[in-house]
Amino acid sequence: MMAFSRFAGRFPRSISTAALLLCLVVPPSPGISETDEEYSSALLWIASMESTTVIWLVYVSIFITIVWTKIARGTTASTPTTKRSLPPPPMAAGAPLLGILPALVMKGPLQAIHDAYKTMGSVFTVRLLHLQVTFLVGPEVSSHFYHGLDSEMSQDEVSKFTIPTFGPGVAFDVDLATRREQIRFFGDAMKPAKLRTYAPLMAHEVEEYFTKWGQSGTVDLKHELEHLVTLVASRCLFGDEVRGKMFGEVATHLRELNDGMRLVTILFPHLPTPAHRRRDRARARLGEIFSGIVRSREAARRGGRSSYDDILQSLIDSRYKDGRATTETEVVGMLVSALFAGQHTSSSTATWTGARLLSPDNAAHLLAAVEEQERIMGRHGPDPGHMGYEALQEMDALHRCMKETLRLHPPALTLLRLARRGFVVRSKEGEEYEVPAGRTVASPLVIHNRLPGLYRDPDRFDPGRFGGPDKGASLAYTAFGGGRHACVGEAFAYMQIKAIWSHLLRNFEMEMVSPFPETDWNVVMPGPKGKVMVSYKRRRMAAAA
Ligand code: HEM
Questions:
Q1: Per the entry, which co-factors are needed (predicted)?
Q2: What are the helix (H) ranges across 303-439?
């Protein structure tokens, strides 16, 4: 997933860094007292720094502000979209200078954006430091966001900061046409025929992983599933041959890549912070490891020994429309992107699914999911090797639990675009506004999927709501995005999480012994906060006839 949502990092720390840098560039406006709390603490912090550091920070901040402004000016159309002049979207109240920042820090993003939505309606603008962001909430106002042309609603400007993470030659380091072709390569590697070949790999990886659990015990489910998801994804990406020996190192570097994508990264992707330095070292090492693998595949092919059927081979064999083969740098970048896109999103979804199913309030949903496993075992046999593609596709009850989990806990907080051309939007309340060219536009998934007009009793976990006509249609359900840039890994993610939970439900009785996890809003890509402790006991499930 290549979105704002992918940033994993400590929110307050990153925010305050960004706020401090802003304080260095923007003096307090006349209306703002110098005793303003955030501003004075910034000044105190600055005062405690070496003068060379201060000068350096001022220099970097000015430079980046100029570049940012130039990019926005250079890439946006200034022609108005309408002959009538329409007002811009109304501005939500915010603190002087800091805008919505204090509310974000104090209430958390869900509450802060929800409060603004309650007061302002479906279309409104907030100020976050020097940035104005227009929020579009709900399917009625989101069509242009999701379906607009890339030349008009662009990901580029708001996503360039991902380049140090994904590396050269892929994603936002290449032009749109190349990027679209690369996404097609991913799409090809995720087609049902390919997914069918990954299903047994997933089942075996999961089976093998849980052999290390004893007859009974207590574990941190979040920690366990983070590991397992990386193992499953690695096996599908690289097959068996390398997954085992490089797993430990790759997992560490992936964590460092995640940790190196913080809020401050959006504005200052190359700021030499410790986290960015670790990210750069991790990316370089991953590049070496993956290049080695790609080269050994090429050598095997030359020696006529190539018979691989994994995602890596699919990416190596991919061809651009002009017949050009993918380069080693591109394949490596796509491998890193695939691992990055799927890792945190899937592991946090796997953990939330468990927390929801094991919550005492949801005993009936757990029972339905367990009974479904008994029935499916009855049809396909108890051997884990039989839990293949067809069996996973039949797990409707589990599928609905995951879908409902994602509705309530989307790993992507909000998606972002830059409006290169101004556009008109009619709010749900019937007002027309012109969103100006150059404006950052946001679709906040975190409240989009909880709108009472779309979902009855929206905060309740109710997988049954997806039993009828699929609400995934027409932008009502956006956990995987939608329109032009809908997630290409959705089916893969469902399959791997179902493979994990199907095994757990069949083989263990489980109880959550820690409270239902809170959401960690302190990271930009929200996930379950703290440990999710679960006690388990092995069981032998009888197949239902
Ligand atoms: C539960 C797991 C996942 C969730 C919730 C998720 C969510 C998303 C979302 C919301 C977007 C839209 C981004 C935007 O519009 O700006 C997206 C795009 C994307 N995702 Fe995922 N994702 C998941 C797993 C994966 C996996 C496993 C892969 C690949 C292995 C993947 C690959 C991608 C790619 C390549 C795109 C970009 C599509 C485009 O720009 O056309 N995702 N994802």
A1: heme
A2: 311-317, 328-357, 363-380, 389-393, 396-408
